[in-house]
Amino acid sequence: MPSNQSDDRFGISKLILYIFIPCILGMILAAFIPQPIIGLIELRDPIDNKSGRALTEQIQYAYDNNHIKAVVLIIDCPGGTVNDTELGFLELNRLRERKPVIAIVQGLSASGAYYISMAADEIISNPSAMIGNVGVIGQLPAVPIILEEIYSTGPYKLWGQARDTYVRQIEIMKEDFLQAVEFGRGENLAITLEEISRGEIYSANEGLKLGLIDALGAQSNAIELAAQKAHIAHYRTVHLDEELNQENNMGSSFFALDENGEITGYPKEPGFYYLYIPDIKGGLR
Amino acid sequence: MKNKKILIFLLFFTLPIIGRLLWFYQGIYFRNSKANYPVYENLTIPLPALSTPVPSAPAELEKKVTVLIDQSHGNLFTVAEIEPLFSDLILRGVEILVADTESDFEPMLRKSDALIVITPTDPYTSEEIENVEEFVARGGKMVVIADPTRSDSEYQDDREESVIQTNQLLQTFLISFNNDYVYNISENEGNFRNVFVYPARYSDLTKNLTSLVFYGAHSVATSAESVIEGDQKTLSSLTDTGGNLSLSALDESGNVLVIGDLTFMTNPFYQVADNYQFIQNITDFLINSFRVKNFYDFPDLFTRDIGVILSEGITLDDDLLKVLSNLQRNFELDDIAVTILKEPTDGFDEIIIGIYPPGEELRTITDAIGFYYSEANHPLTTTPTTEEELREDTVTESVGATNYFTVPEFGSIQAEDFGFLIINHSDKKIQLVLLADNQENCINLLELFVTGSLERCFVGKNVAICELDIQKNHDYDYEGGLIEDNLENEDNLLNGDLETESTPETTQTPNPTKTEQP
Description:
Chain A has 285 residues and is of the alpha/beta class. Chain A is 41% helix and 21% strand. Chain A folds into two domains: 1-33; 38-275, 2-enoyl-CoA Hydratase, Chain A, domain 1 (Alpha-Beta Complex), CATH 3.90.226.10.
C-alpha cells in the first residue's frame, strides 16, 4: 500500500512536473507572443507638408514595428503637392517590400492620392468612389524682371526658373506619375498610359474595368485581404495616427479662401501639384 | 527515460506557444517580387527645335501703311506682349495706331490700312461691325486673334466671352472660332496643349514654314482657305476628335486672317520652330494691303504728303490761303505735310483744284474714271440707285440743263450748282480732283476737308457730288453733323476748326518751310 501511495504521489508529481508546469510556463511565454496588428493609415486630407509628414511617420512606424503585419491605407483624398506625394509613395513602396499594403478608396483617390496608392499591393474601392485624374498642375512663375532696389547674381536667382523650364518640369512629373502607374498596376492595366495621361477621373466601376483598381469592396474587405496576404488571423487593427498621437490635420489651410472666406479648391501656395480640383460653384473654381 | 521526460516537458512547454502562434499566424509572409520605382533620373522632356529668328530688314515702304491695333473692346492683351509683331511692323516702316477707347476706333480705322483685333471681350456695335466690313471690302486687311488661355474670368461660363465677340465681328466673313482648345497627347511641345501645327498649303502666309508651335489654341471653323492645321492626333477639346483641324484661316476675300493662338507670337515662344517666320509673314500680309481709299474714308484719303496743285483759273488769294492753312494744320495731326506744287511730283498724293470745264491736265484724270463734261443739251438720266438718293429738287432742276457731266454711277448731271470731288488711284499716288464752276466754290469744296464731313454731298465710289455754297448756309455741330441755323459769323466757319469753335479766328499762314509758293 505504501508503495502504491508513493507511486500515486510520484505519478501526480510527475504530471505536475512534466505536463502542468511546462504548460503553465508555455502559456506564460505564449502570452508574450503579441497579437498581430493590421495598421490603418488614413489619407483623408490634401497632401501637403503637414499631412505628408504625418503620413510618412505612420508608414515608418509600420515599417519598424514588427507587430504590425500588414497595412491598410484608407484613401479619401484629392492629392496634394508633388513633393509630399512622392515622399509618401516612396516610403509606402519601401514598406511594401516588408509587409503587405492594401489600399481602400473611400470616396476619392485622385491624382496624388492615386499616385501613393501605386505603392499598394492591391487597391480596393468603394463602388461609388472616384479614381484617377493622373497628372500635374502648376502655375507658371512670374516673367523675370529686374528691380531697382534688389540685386541678384543671375537672371533666375529671384524667379527660380524660366517659364519654359517650368512647363518641362511639369511634363517630367507627369512622366514620373505615369511610370509609377505602370509599375504599380503593371499588366492589370487595360488602358494605355497615353489614355491615362488625359487626366480623366473614373468611377470605381469604370476604374476596375480599366485595371486602375483590383476590386470593389469595403474597408473590411481590405483588412481581410491584408490579413490574408500577411497570413495572419485573430488580428487587431490599430489606427496608426492615434498610436502616434498625431494631430488631426483637418482644417489645415491647404486651400486658398475666396473673398467670402470660402474654400476655393485651389491650393494656397504656388507650386507643383498632383491635385484634383473638382468643379465647384459651376465653374472652374 | 530521462530524455523522454525532457521531451514530454518540452512538448507541453511549447504546446501553448505553438497553439498561440498558430492561432495568430497561418503562414509566413514572403514578398515574391521587389517593389518597382520610377527611374526618376532617366526622365527627360526634349527641348523643341528653336528657330533662329532673323529680324526683318528695315524697309521704306512705297506708301505710308497704317496698322490699327484695337484695344478698345476689353481686349485681353497688352501691346508689349505682341512685341515681336510690333517690332517687325515698326522695322518695315509701318505706322501703328492703338485704339484705346471706343470713340477712337472708327476714326482710326478710317486712317488705317490694316486692323489687328485680339481677344476682345466687349461687344462691337452694329455700326462698328459695318465699318469693319466696309473696311475689309475696300481691301483693308484684318487679323483676328483669339486665345483660349485669355480670359478675365476663372469661371467657365464667362470664358467664352472673347470667342462670342470675335465671332460676332467675323460673322459676315463666314469664318469663326470654335469655343474649344486643341491638344495632342502623343506628340507635343512639352505639354498636351502645346501643339505642333503645319502649313495647310503653300501661300504667301505659309512661305518658309515647316512647322510651328501653338500654345493653347482655338480651332477655326471655315469653308474657305485653311492656313495652319494640326496633325491627325491634334484633337478638339469639344469633341475629343479632330484630324487636320484648322487653327488659322483666311476668309474668301483673302483679307481676313484669323489665328486661334496669341501666345505663339509672344516672348519667348515666338522663337520656337518657325513661329517668327509666321509673324513675318503676317507682317507682309498686313503691309500688303491694297486698301482703296474712297469717300467712306473722308477726310482720311491720303497716305503720303499732299501736294496741292492749282489748275488754270485758280489763284492763290487770301481765302484760298486761309483754307489751305487750316488744311495744313489738320493734316499735320496725321503727320501728313501739305505743300503747294506747280506740277505733279513723285512721292506726293495730290489735291488738284480746278474749274470746269476741266482743262487738259485734269481731263486725263477725269477721263480715266469715266467722268466727262459736255455742253450738249441733255436731259438728266440717273441710275435707279442714285435716283432714290439724290434729293428731289436736284432732279427736277437738272432736267433740260445745257452743260452736264456724265458721272460714273450717277449718269448725267447738270453742271451748275454742283461741285465734284473725284478720286483717282494709281500705283504711286492718290489724286483728288476738286472741280467747281468758280474759285469760290472750289474753296468751299476744299473746306469740306477742314470740316471733315461730306454730309451735303452724294457720295459714290470715286465721285462725290456736293451742293455748293453750303458752307454759307449751314453750321456744323461738334460731331460733324449739320445744324440748320444760318451762320452769323462766317469767319468761324472758314476757320473750320470745329472743335475749337471758341478760339479766335486763325490767322495762321502756311508753314513756309513746307509750302512752296507757285
